[in-house]
Amino acid sequence: MTPELLQTALTRALSTACGRVVDLPATVTLVRAKDPGRGHWTSNIALQTAAVLGRAPRDLAIDIAALLRAEPGVRSVEVSGPGFLTITPSAPAAQLAAAILSSASDRDAVEPAPAAEPAPASAQSGSAPSEPMPDDAVLDEVRVAHALARRIERVAVATGVARLAAAAPADAGLGEASAAGGAVEAGTDEAETALLTALVDFPRVAGDAVPARIVRHLQGLAEVFHRWVDSHPVIPTIDEDVTGVHAERLLLDRAVGVVLGDGLRLLGATAPERM
Fold it and tell me: One Pfam family from the UniProt entry (predicted)?
């Protein structure tokens, strides 16, 4: 989220908190946080407007923070001191997911990969081929992960997470990231970084048009997706508010579903919504 978009989000949150349209005073500042570990931007909006609105600055800041957390481009908001806001925009993960979803929406169809060649005679005589072809059990692992991603998306719609998951513009498309050798900015932890890397690397693997390699990549993506889901719940618990973090995770979940579905169709296999 750019500073300009964040200013707009602040104005919207302030107006909602007050129940009427409020213009930001000229003295309201949005500056880089001194401690990046706690957030990227700080704002004194509550301190500058509380007196005019007849509110306690910290109480107003708490209300603004709650509204900002629902913005799709905001990852977290903290309130400190008498009413300062510390804001962290969405991580690169959301930008990458948005790029994948955007590129997927631009494709008319996915062409199937070339059919697998028969196994060499050496493989038929008992020695293992250098590129073993997948059986249905392996493809089912990918199908299960695809169905899980779709199920999470359906639950996200029912729980309100999907309303916050508007894709933010990405700095670079998926193809550009893949052309850079699959290098991505680190995610929030090892599981997210592994997931991002697998997503970014898919176009290169698919471009090789070698079915066995595509399957291995999809199988690896399915495995890291399961690990990521276990430690990064997309759906909030019953006593937890829906936040921008959940919306950001939903974007990644959708991106995984798109890539797994595209990969299965490249192989001429089905990509079921439910299993």
Answer: DALR_1
Full strand arrangement of the beta sheet holding 41-43: 30-32, 41-43, 84-89, 74-80
Helix axes 136-159, 244-266, angle to 10 degrees: 150
Q: Is the C-alpha dihedral spanning 101, 106, 108, 110 positive or negative?
A: negative
Could you tell me which of 89, 88, 90, 67 has the C-alpha nearest to residue 78? 88
Residues 195-243: tens digit of each pLDDT: 888 888 888 888 888 899 999 999 999 999 999 999 989 998 888 888 7
Grouping H, G, I as helix, E, B as strand and the rest as coil, residue 186 is coil
pTM: 0.56
- 77/88 Cα distance (integer angstroms): 6
Closest by CA position to 104, among listed 225, 237, 261: 261
**Structural element, H or E, at residue 207:** helix 190-208
Contact status, residue 117 vs residue 247, Cβ threshold 8 Å: no
